[in-house]
Amino acid sequence: MNESVFNIKPLGFQWEALDPFLFCVHHEDFFPKGNANLGPDEKELVGRNMGQDFQVKDGWRMYHGQRVPGFPPHPHRGFETVTVVRKGWVDHSDSMGAAGRYGNGDVQWMTAGKGLMHAEMFPLVNQDAGNPMELFQIWLNLPRVSKMVEPHYKMFWNEDISRYETVDAQNRKTTIELIAGQIDTLSAPVPPPDSWASKAENEVAIWVIHMEPNATFELSAASPGVNRRLYFYKGDQLQLNDTDLPAYHSADVKADQQVSMVAGDEACSALLLQGRPIHEPVVQYGPFVMNAQQEIEEAFSEYRQTQFGGWPWPQEEVTHGADAKRFAIYSDGTKEER
Predict the structure, then answer these.
(1) In Å, what is the CA distance from 329 to each residue of 68, 82, 86, 249, 335?
(2) Does domain 161-275 bear CATH number 3.40.50.720?
(3) Alpha-carbon distance 259 to 12, whole Å?
(4) For 211-253, how does the pLDDT look when each residue is reduced to its tens digit (9 = 90+)?
(5) Among candidates 106, 103, 113, 109, which has minimal Cα distance to 75?
(6) Could you tell me how many helices (H) and strands (E) the chain has, helices first?
(7) CA-to-CA separations, 208 to 112, 154, 177, 181, in angstroms, rounded
(8) Omega cis (within 30) before 191
(9) Which of 40, 141, 153, 324 has its CA 20 to 30 A from that of 201?
(10) pTM exceeds 0.85, yes or no
(11) SS3 of 165, please?
(12) For the Pirin N-terminal domain, which residue ranges apply (predicted)?
């Protein structure tokens, strides 16, 4: 094995990540057609462990949802979530009064900071056919100095995300969606202000790489000391510097060395997470990520007392109607529609 490519591992539901990232979850569900409440028919729910339905049954899961798939109100503190939706819809609502619907290529970047509650439901808006959904949720740590900042979120709408395209000597194309970072002179949208990714010297990159069959792409080197991991999630085979990476596996890649990527006979897709490590203690308990156990206990105590502002919505599994229009309402009342 080439020493620039190492630590090859199979991928499960939750993917391990390198500092400054905490982990990534790959959700892929082939939801059935929806009903008037934007959930599956009651007969589809028979035999499921409702409220804790993480086992794939008939190609999909309800997660913590009771009537709509997804994640009803739950708290976060001390880190960020980057939710990259490949297919389907997410309905967001939170304890600051913010809300939104996004999907099909959109990205939400949320800084939990000192704490908030939010819900992420997956509305089944199509009542005539199935509702396939695929997304990545990436947890990015915050350094100690930023763990108690005010919560904040930004939308990166699909049409505003930079896409880098290149072709190899055989005219086979590679396309890279830049969620964070830059390639040559092309930059991703600006991350939230308190993010570790907001400082260019941290070299944070979140790229979704798509390669045509048998395409070749040269992954440029980053700086020494930067962590870089590649997650190969679609396709038959991917070669990294003469090392074969099997389907649905990850590999660590030396960031300060150029890596040649060669797709197999099928089109390939991979997620790249890269960044300079924060190098601070990480203590995680459920939805809270801090630097010390005492800080975790303080987070739970404050949450029990304040509910991080409480839940301002009339129900827990908040959805935003059957009409699949994209929008975002921020905590200051600003509204965007797409």
Answers:
(1) 21, 18, 21, 37, 4
(2) no
(3) 25
(4) 999 999 999 999 999 999 999 999 999 999 999 999 999 999 9
(5) 113
(6) 1, 27
(7) 24, 19, 5, 12
(8) no
(9) 153
(10) yes
(11) strand
(12) 62-140
